């Protein structure tokens, strides 16, 4: 049977009840992505000499501040959705309804990671390098939540993998007939991110990038892909400067910062990374009893 379109899941799949609780599928996807990122980052840091559990101590700060940054970045790039006469300002905090901006999470998460790294003694750039491929995997898992929320789609298309969107959805563009198919941007980003994981790991292994250069590759890769996806995205409520959506401007900035970080850190630190710990903060190595100790 040939694929003629990609159906959206029934709206009822976006949430379910568990006793008195309402569980949102979007939130579960985000949580799953966070868990995956923690496991992958810890394994990568442990392989470089970090203590087990140190990533949890960092993400306790990075995740909450990152979620706050993600939400407020979204709100303030979609002010028309939240600030109008008679608006319910409580919707600003309704994160379970979708609307969390990756670039906002990067800003907030960086602040939280800095705090967490200072408290644990881990070098911020070492943590960022270990996190880079894990971020792309976590973002891919989070994009599955966009699918269940019937969001993050692009311009109309006749391609056989065009996404079906119900004309009753609030994001369905005005003036288009029912049955119009759209580019599944959430799927494109998942594919782009997973390709990025493979490329980043390959380059890191080949050239042993450290001192933030692996994270710089993540910034460049993600920013390039996101700028293209945003160019074909349908998001009429997003604020724009000179007719260009805010997320495209943000993507250009992220790519530029990634290039600058890669070049500057490569010149500042041509030497191998001595330790993932800040100077003087590495934990003491436990004494292993020798045969003399046991006699």
Task: Please explain how this structure is put together.
By secondary structure, this protein is mainly alpha-helical. The chain has one domain (11-268). The chain has nine helices and six strands, in the order ββαααααββααββαα. Strand 1 (15-18) and strand 2 form a beta hairpin. The longest helix is centred in the middle third of the chain and has 25 residues, at 124-148. The chain is globular and about 65 Å long. Mean pLDDT is 86; it is low at 286-295.
Task: List its traits.
single chain; 295 residues; mainly alpha; two-stranded antiparallel sheet; transferase
Outline the fold blueprint.
Layout: E1 15-18, E2 21-24, H1 25-46, H2 54-76, H3 79-82, H4 102-120, H5 124-148, E3 163-164, E4 181-182, H6 185-207, H7 213-231, E5 240-241, E6 244-245, H8 246-268, H9 291-294
Antiparallel strand pairs: 1-2, 3-4, 5-6
Helix pairs in contact: 1-2, 1-5, 2-4, 5-6, 5-7, 6-7, 7-8
Number of strands: 6
Inertia-based shape: globular
**Estimated helix fraction:** 40-55%
N- and C-termini, Cα separation: 74 Å
| Rounded radius of gyration (Å) | 22 Å
The H-and-E topology, N to C, reads as EEHHHHHEEHHEEHH
The chain-level structural class is mainly alpha
Mean pLDDT over all positions: 86
Question: What's the number of helices?
Answer: 9
What's the structural domain tally? 1
Give the biggest beta sheet: 2 strands, antiparallel
Strand order of the largest sheet: 1-2
pLDDT < 50 stretches? 286-295
- How much beta, percentage-wise? 5-15%
Quick gist of this model?
This protein is mainly alpha-helical and 295 residues long. Helices cover 55% and strands 5% of the residues. It contains nine helices and six strands.
């Amino acid at each position: 049977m040939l694929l003629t379109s990609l159906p959206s899941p029934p709206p009822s799949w976006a949430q379910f009840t568990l006793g008195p609780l309402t569980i949102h599928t979007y939130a579960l996807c985000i949580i799953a992505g966070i868990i995956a990122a923690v496991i992958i980052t810890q394994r990568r840091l442990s392989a470089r000499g970090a203590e087990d559990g140190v990533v949890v101590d960092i993400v306790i700060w990075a995740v909450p501040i990152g979620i706050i940054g993600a939400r407020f970045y979204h709100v303030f790039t979609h002010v028309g959705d939240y600030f109008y006469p008679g608006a319910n300002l409580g919707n600003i905090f309704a994160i379970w309804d979708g609307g969390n901006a990756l670039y906002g999470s990067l800003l907030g998460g960086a602040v939280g990671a800095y705090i967490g790294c200072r408290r644990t003694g881990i070098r911020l750039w070492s943590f960022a390098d270990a996190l880079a491929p894990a971020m792309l995997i976590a973002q891919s898992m989070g994009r599955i939540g966009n699918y269940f929320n019937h969001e993050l789609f692009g311009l109309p298309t006749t391609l056989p993998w065009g996404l079906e969107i119900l004309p009753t959805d609030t994001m369905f563009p005005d003036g288009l007939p029912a049955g119009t198919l759209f580019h599944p941007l959430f799927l494109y980003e998942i594919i782009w991110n997973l390709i990025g994981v493979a490329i980043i790991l390959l380059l890191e292994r080949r050239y042993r990038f450290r001192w933030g250069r692996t994270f710089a590759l993540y910034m460049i890769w993600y920013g390039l892909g996101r700028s293209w996806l945003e160019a074909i995205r349908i998001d009429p409520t997003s604020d724009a400067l000179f007719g260009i959506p805010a997320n495209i401007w943000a993507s250009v900035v992220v790519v530029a910062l990634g290039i600058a970080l890669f070049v500057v850190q490569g010149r500042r630190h041509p030497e191998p990374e001595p330790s993932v710990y800040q100077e003087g903060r590495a934990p003491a190595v436990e004494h292993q009893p020798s045969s003399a100790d046991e006699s």
